[in-house]
């Protein structure tokens, strides 16, 4: 290829890069002219519809990484108005591109959250990886107020908590914004959102993420206890980690602790008058602790059998609870049925039968104890 | 000066990138939901048949392209009228992509920068690219292509943790009418524009190699498009994908590999958006070739400025806002069928009748100074 072409190509690339990088002068923002928002809490307003609390990060001039966190509160009839009104308080435009979490108050969630999520999906600055929570028992703003224990920024600590909960405790089920939207838009599954609660630890208060709220038609309808989240996650096929306490058969006050190392759930339907869901759970664990350590009365097979029996009972009980008390298909059984047995699902819809009401349930648990730690069984 | 050779494989690369250019933005009236991928496959198949029509058009006149064929088949008045119609078509295709390119940058990055300023910067780039000549443009985009492909495949792989393969189900349950309509929409918005390659002022000889150009280009472009469509479906599911204006951008914004490879959507989209620029250039080159046929003695520089000003004006006239573009692509893009299928089919019939029935020999276009540049494969 001739020199001329290379020259031209260099010129073209140069012009493109100049064109694309220099044309942003209208949008140019100095870091000290914007306020970074780490998290947003939404409560009902006193004068206007919403009270918005922004956890903002202020960068201080320093050789080291020096930041301080301030809460900025505004009110607005819409979320967008609230964000823009914050200029009057903060003196700067709020930049929400680094926002990690949105926390709705219980009151707002009871009225429905779909319309409020629209802004967060529509705005190009925000990312769809934003975490969505609902505050339980307190105003949403309280969850951002001096609640961070290890980190200065509560929203960032909340994000870290989410990542670790999934691996180590499974007391809740986090949701990213796009997952929330997906659940709202999809048929055959009810939305659930994780709960943020305030806990007092000696003189400090902090937040915990335990349990989930479930929604009916995007309106908060009830709460599922943290102890039951593992069953919920198993029935959603999402359990990744955490521990399971199985009471001893002869002494229910003592527990064998299993550490979950992996879990797979397969769903199979049998169609008939009433659809039957056969759930096959395959769980891998290790023994975390055993109160009767010195007796050495259990073999690995015993450990497996005990876990299987207990988990079987609990899953049947949990299914009955969500079917009869919760009355919302939080695990998305109907979606699975719709995906695999579309014609049958169509027939049930035509017959005006409520799928979840007539669904029957069976579970088969298979457990595997990989090891018993540094102690023999 | 030594002529740069353009091979049929390079032309195929250009066609593939040209076809795939639409996947960054909303792609017309596509509402086949979970079966969008199938509608796309139908389009690829249909376009391969359509390409046969273009192939016959190119081969029927040994040294001619679309404009020469129009001229020779329909005579001076009707032929010129059709050439004018095709110039308008090339300019409209270029305008749509030009507006898409500018709007993409504006909506996602430079919200406060006036449209005119971005448009003028892009026009400057386009002017220099046009002045460099088609071969330099082809060479440039052939260099960009591997990066484009690598980034697309990388995005597809990095999003794997977010995939829900059940989003495919229920398989092929979308009403056939919707699938066919979506397939046609893919065709008119993107694939059918392959006709622009028949009037670029360069012809690949031997013309038999056009089979490879169209075959590889359409299948390659279709596969790239398919990767993007699958990415949207697997990550967002059909209902949420349907809500998004820039589904590919929104999907790649979710990439998060251990919090290390994250927030790379700007980098990736700046590579993908190059394909839209290519489409603008191909549309303009096509229109310029038409102009050269109408005014063989006209000034090249004048034509460059004229076409660029026309697309700037048209972009204001046709698209007062981005919503107008979306509606245009969804509701009015069907008119393109006349240019993509109607006129070419009529042209082929007329050419065959003239050649077979009237035994008319076609004149050598070089005699009138209209002969397209011949390039070997």
Level-1 CATH class name of chain B? Mainly Alpha
- Reported by name, the CATH topology of chain B is Hydantoin permease
Q: Tell me the major beta sheet of chain A.
A: 10 strands, mixed
How many domain units of chain B?
Answer: 1
Record the SSE blueprint.
The complex is a heterodimer of chains A (377) and B (377).
Chain A: H1 3-22, E1 34-44, E2 50-59, E3 67-76, H2 79-90, E4 93-95, E5 101-104, H3 106-111, H4 114-122, E6 131-135, H5 154-169, H6 177-185, E7 192-201, E8 204-208, E9 212-216, E10 219-224, H7 229-236, E11 243-247, E12 255-270, E13 276-289, H8 300-326, H9 333-340, H10 342-350, H11 355-358, E14 360-371
Parallel strand pairs in A: 1-4, 1-5, 5-6, 6-7, 13-14
Antiparallel strand pairs in A: 1-2, 2-3, 7-8, 7-9, 9-10, 11-12, 12-13
Chain B: H1 8-20, H2 36-60, H3 66-108, H4 115-132, H5 134-158, H6 176-189, E1 202-205, H7 210-243, H8 247-252, E2 256-257, E3 261-262, H9 265-272, H10 274-294, H11 300-318, H12 322-332, H13 336-357, E4 373-376
Helix pairs in contact in B: 1-5, 1-7, 1-10, 2-6, 2-7, 2-13, 3-4, 3-10, 3-11, 3-13, 4-5, 4-11, 5-7, 5-10, 10-11
What attributes does this structure have?
heterodimer, A: 377 residues, alpha/beta, 14 strands, 34% helix, globular, B: 377 residues, Hydantoin permease, two-stranded antiparallel ribbon, 4 strands
């Amino acid at each position: 290829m001739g020199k001329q072409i290379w020259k031209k190509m260099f010129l073209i690339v140069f012009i493109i890069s100049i064109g694309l990088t220099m044309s942003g002068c209208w949008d140019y923002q100095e870091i000290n002219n914007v306020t970074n928002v780490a998290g947003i809490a939404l409560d009902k307003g006193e004068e206007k519809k919403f009270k918005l609390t922004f956890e903002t990060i202020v960068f201080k001039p320093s050789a080291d990484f020096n930041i301080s966190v301030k809460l900025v509160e505004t009110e607005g009839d819409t979320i967008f108005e609230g964000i823009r009104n914050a200029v009057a308080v903060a003196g700067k435009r709020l930049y929400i591109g680094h926002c990690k979490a949105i926390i709705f108050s219980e009151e707002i969630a009871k009225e429905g959250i779909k319309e409020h999520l629209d802004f967060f999906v529509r705005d190009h600055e925000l990312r769809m990886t934003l975490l969505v929570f609902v505050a339980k028992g307190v105003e949403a703003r309280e969850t951002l107020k001096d609640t961070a224990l290890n980190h200065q920024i509560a929203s960032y600590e909340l994000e870290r908590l989410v990542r670790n909960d999934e691996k180590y405790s499974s007391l809740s089920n986090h949701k990213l914004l796009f997952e929330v939207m997906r659940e709202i838009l999809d048929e055959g599954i009810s939305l659930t959102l994780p709960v943020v609660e305030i806990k007092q630890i000696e003189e400090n208060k902090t937040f915990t993420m335990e349990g989930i709220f479930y929604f009916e038609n995007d309106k908060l309808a009830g709460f599922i206890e943290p102890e039951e989240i593992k069953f919920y996650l198993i029935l959603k096929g999402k359990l990744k980690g955490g521990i399971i306490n199985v009471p001893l058969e002869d002494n229910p006050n003592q527990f064998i602790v299993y550490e979950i190392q992996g879990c797979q759930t397969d769903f199979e339907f049998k169609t008939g008058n009433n659809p039957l869901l056969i759930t096959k759970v395959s769980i891998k664990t290790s023994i975390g602790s055993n109160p009767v350590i010195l007796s050495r009365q259990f073999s690995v097979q015993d450990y497996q059998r005990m876990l299987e029996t207990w988990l079987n009972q609990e899953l049947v009980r949990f299914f009955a609870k969500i079917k009869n008390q919760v009355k919302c298909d939080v695990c998305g059984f109907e979606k699975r049925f719709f995906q695999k047995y579309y014609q049958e699902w169509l027939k049930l819809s035509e017959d005006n039968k409520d799928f979840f009401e007539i669904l029957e349930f069976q579970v088969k648990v298979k457990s595997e104890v990989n090891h018993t730690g540094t102690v023999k069984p | 000066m030594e002529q740069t050779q353009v091979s049929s494989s390079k032309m195929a690369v250009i066609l593939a990138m040209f076809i795939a250019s639409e996947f960054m933005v909303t792609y017309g009236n596509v509402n086949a939901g979970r079966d969008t991928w199938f509608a796309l496959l139908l389009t690829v198949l249909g376009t391969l048949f359509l390409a046969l029509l273009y192939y016959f058009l190119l081969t029927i006149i040994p040294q001619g392209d679309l404009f020469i064929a129009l001229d020779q088949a329909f005579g001076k008045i009707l032929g010129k009228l059709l050439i004018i119609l095709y110039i308008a078509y090339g300019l409209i295709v270029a305008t749509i992509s030009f507006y898409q390119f500018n709007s993409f940058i504006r909506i996602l990055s430079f919200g406060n920068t006036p449209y005119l300023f971005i448009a003028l910067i892009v026009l400057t780039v386009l002017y220099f690219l046009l002045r460099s000549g088609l071969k330099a443009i082809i060479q440039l985009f052939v260099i960009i292509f591997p990066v484009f492909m690598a980034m697309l495949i990388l995005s597809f792989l990095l999003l794997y943790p977010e995939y829900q393969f059940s989003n495919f189900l229920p398989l092929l349950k979308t009403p056939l009418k919707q699938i066919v309509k979506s397939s046609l929409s893919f065709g008119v918005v993107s694939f059918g524009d392959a006709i622009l390659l028949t009037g670029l002022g360069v012809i690949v000889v031997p013309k038999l190699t056009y089979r490879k150009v169209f075959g590889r280009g359409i299948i390659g472009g279709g596969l790239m498009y398919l990767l993007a469509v699958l990415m949207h479906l697997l990550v967002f599911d059909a209902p949420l994908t349907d809500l998004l204006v820039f589904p590919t951008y929104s999907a790649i914004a979710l990439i998060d590999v251990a919090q290390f490879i994250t927030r790379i959507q700007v980098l990736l989209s700046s590579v993908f958006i190059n394909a839209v620029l290519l489409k603008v250039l191909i549309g303009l080159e096509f229109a310029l070739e038409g102009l050269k046929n109408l005014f063989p003695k006209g000034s090249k520089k004048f034509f460059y400025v004229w076409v660029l000003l026309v697309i700037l004006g048209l972009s204001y006239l046709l698209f007062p806002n981005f919503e107008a573009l979306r509606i245009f692509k969804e509701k009015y893009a069907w008119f393109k069928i006349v240019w993509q299928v109607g006129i070419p089919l009529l042209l082929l019939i007329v050419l065959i009748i003239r050649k077979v029935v009237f035994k008319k020999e076609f004149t050598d276009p070089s005699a009138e100074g209209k002969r397209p540049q011949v390039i070997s494969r």
